[in-house]
Amino acid sequence: MHRKYYKILKVNCSKKIIESLNIALEKEGALSISIEDPYDGTTKEQPVLLDGNSSEQYWDNSLISALFDSQANIDEITNTLNNAFGDLKLQAEKLEDKDWVSENRKQIKSIKIGKKLMIVPSWEKPVSNKNINIFVDPGLAFGSGSHPTTTMCLEWLEKNIKGGEKVLDYGSGSGILSIAASKLGASQVCGVDIDNQALESSLSNALKNNVTLKVYKPKDLKGKNFDIIAANILSNPLIKLAKDFSGKIKPKGKVVLSGFYSDDIEKIRTEYNKYFSKTKVYKIVENWVCLEALK
């Protein structure tokens, strides 16, 4: 019995032709199309803030992957696209069909962070109930707990939450920082994200952990006087948010920032020093930075 497989066409292209190339791929029968940063995870990573208002919706250079049925005539599709767009240098690959949910779950394991936090995939049993177990299903949004920026923020929260704090998780993603803050003893936690799926994921994961979490789009957040603000996002939005965070934090409150490389430390510190009494680097892991600011 032959296993089912798919065909994939991959191409690096400029953002000028992304929209028209997507339309052409759909006309040729693409089952799905993904657009990625070809430099993701490297020092050449290209930050893009998808806030719904920016015109910069794509990377300057993007990697497009189009999935086709096994019966698709890839040579014919390649010729059609090259005739329309010039020599795209398309690459064809074969992809065997699998139980992708199971395959993905194999890659995600429980992670011990700090002295007592344990990030546990929702489909696994906790290793020990002596830990503060955080059950997370990262399927809908960024945040399985394995990325250095998430790990550093979690470590920082464990060290700085003493109990009773009001916490804002800005760019909440899967809700992992919000849930950790709540389980560490915060009395009130608010999650903010621009992505509806992220907000849904945060609420879903909060239910799995039996914690109460309020979620908002940025424009809907009215709260002030937070004791702690955590923001694990990109450097450009962090810089733009410095003044806003200053207006939302209590005197002597703390902000923990991550999601950027060491090359951006000085420009972020320069902006936050305008509104906060002190900034310092908490930790650097694999060139990723975690910075804290004191009001």
Overview of this structure, please?
It is a single chain. This protein is an alpha/beta fold. The protein has 2 domains: about 5-95, 2-Layer Sandwich (Alpha-Beta Plaits), CATH 3.30.70; about 140-295, Vaccinia Virus protein VP39 (Rossmann fold). Helices cover about 30% and strands about 30% of the residues. Strands 10-9-8-11-12-14-13 form a 7-stranded mixed β-sheet, with helices on both faces. A hairpin with a 3-residue loop joins β5 (about 110-115) and β6. Mean pLDDT is about 85; it is low at about 50-55.
CATH superfamily of the largest domain: Vaccinia Virus protein VP39
What fold name goes in the CATH topology slot of the largest domain?
Answer: Rossmann fold
> What count of helical segments does DSSP give?
9
Can you identify the CATH class of the largest domain? Alpha Beta
Coarse structural class: alpha/beta
Shape: globular
- The overall number of domains is 2
- Determine the mean pLDDT: 87
Helix content: 25-40%
β-strand percent reads 25-35%
